[in-house]
Amino acid sequence: MPERTLVIGDVHGCLDELRALLARCSFDASADRLVLLGDLLDRGPDPVGCVRFAREIGAESVLGNHEETHLRFRKHRLEQARNLGRAHPMRAFEPERMRQHEALSEDDWRFLEAMPTVLHLADDFVAVHAGLLPGRPLLEQPRRSLVRLRYLDEGGDMRSLAQQELSNTPPRFWTDAYDGAHSVAHGHAVLSLAEPVRTRRPHGPEVFSLDTGCVFGGRLTALVLYDARPDARDIVQVDAARRYAPLRFPVGGAS
Q: Is the pTM of this model over 0.70?
């Protein structure tokens, strides 16, 4: 059993900050468990390096929407190679993203392909990249919501960022309606560029929103859980060295 579990929000290529955060946590790969909340890829200075570093130190990671996009893009390219003349259904990657995509090795791709949508941190605590829909048990959560959920519509189903931008109703974040049995650690939506957001639901479970926008000039955040002290929760952070990417959406919408 690990002595501690470190759960870290969206890294987005910020390898120096990831190393600094692990050093601040005194991370020991032989004794601690490291769980990343997805979105290692895109936007930051060294996304491929983050994937390789995660592999080298034995980190686990849930699937983020950015990994899922790269995996779909690769699947269509491979199908194109087998079926010449077949159109690629996805929008072309911009040059930097394409360079990153092509720099990933076969071992990197195997690591990405093996990422689950849910990781259990404890019997009553799970990690996902995005979120969980209300009214559905964990095993019935759609893959799309686990990887991309931010907002809910009036019926409690997933509302995309584009749909929310066109809506006249205030945003309803999924944590405000969460009624599941597990506590949850997630990334995906930047609710703050400073401190993680901790939400206790009326029925008991807690939700830890850990993406504090490191790639946007915020912080990289770790939630530290202790095997010997199951009720203990520590937050450890490092500041971003600089702002690597523009925050194109209001806080609460970025991913």
A: yes
